[in-house]
Amino acid sequence: MPLKEYLRILWKRGWIIIVMAFVTAASAVVFSMLQRPVYRSSIQINVIPARLDLGLTESIKSLMRNYAANIVSNKTLQEVIDRTGQDMTTDMLRSRVKVSSIESDFMIQIDVDDYDPVVAQQLAQSVADVFIENVNISMQDQDKADRVGVSAKDAAEPAYLQSPKKKINALAGGIFGVLLGTVIVLVLEWLNSGIIRSSTDLERATGITVLGEIPEN
Questions:
Q1: How far from the centroid of its chain's Cα atoms is residue 34's Cα?
Q2: C-alpha distances in Å from residue 136, one per residue of 53, 160, 187
Q3: Is the pTM of this model over 0.70?
C-alpha cells in the first residue's frame, strides 16, 4: 500500500487516534494522582586512599563493593533506626535504600526513598553518618599508610519528588494512545477493505476506471 493511501486512512479516521491519545494520557494523570508521592534524598561518600598507590587504589575498587553491602547490612540499618527513632524493621528500611558504587570517582552514592521528604533526608544523612563512623573505627587498627578515609561530600540533599512524575506519565500515556489508536484505525480499515461502497472503492480495488454507475432510484 503506498504512503499516500496510509495518509488518507489516517486522515479519514484520525479522530480515533486523537480520542485514544486523550483517554490514555488522562488515565495516566489520574493514575498518578492516586499514587502516594515518594520522595528521594541522596548523599555521596568519598572513599580516599591514604596514598596514591596503584595497588591500593585497585584494592579500593573491590573494597567499595564490600562497603556498599555493609551500608545495607542489618547492623548498620538497625543503628540508623535506633538513632532516628523510626518505627520500622531493617527489611523495611533496606527496601528504601539504594546504594551505588561509583568506582571511577571513588565515590559511593546513597539514595533513600520515603513518603515524608523530611524523613527521607534524615535517613539518608543517618545512614551515611553510621557507615562513616564504623569505617573510621575499623581503620584505627590499620597502618596509616594503608588506611582508607571515608567522608561525606556534602550533607544529604533536600528530598525531591521521585514518583509519580505526572508530566512524564502523561506523555507516555499519550504516546501509547497514539500507537494504540493507529493500530485500531489500521485494523478497522483492514476489516472494511473487502467492502465496496462506491465507485471510488471499486476503482481503488481493481485499478480500473469506472465509466458509469446505476443510480439507486
A1: 18
A2: 20, 30, 66
A3: no
| Residue extents of the structural domains in the chain | 3-34+166-204, 38-163
Question: What's the rounded Cα separation, in Å, for the pair 138 and 147?
Answer: 10
> Where are any strands of DSSP class E within the chain?
38-49, 97-102, 107-114, 148-152, 160-163
What whole-number distance in Å separates Cα of residue 96 and Cα of residue 113?
5
**Would you state the cell numbers that stand for residue 17, as one nine-digit string?**
487516534
Most confident range, picked from 45-49, 122-126, 138-142, 194-198: 122-126
Does domain 38-163 correspond to CATH entry 3.30.470.30? no
Please state the φ and ψ torsions of residue 125, each to the nearest 5 degrees.
Answer: -65, -40
State the Cα torsion 147-152-153-159 to the nearest 10°. Answer: 160
* Rounded-to-integer distance, Cα 91 and Cα 195, Å: 63
- As a whole-number percent, the residues of the chain with pLDDT over 90 amount to 38
What is the rounded distance in angstroms from the CA atom of residue 118 to the CA atom of residue 168? 25
Give tens-digit pLDDT for 154-209.
999 999 998 888 888 889 989 998 899 888 888 887 776 655 556 666 556 565 66
Matching residue, cell 504512503: 3
Q: Cα 110 vs. chain centroid, distance in angstroms? A: 16
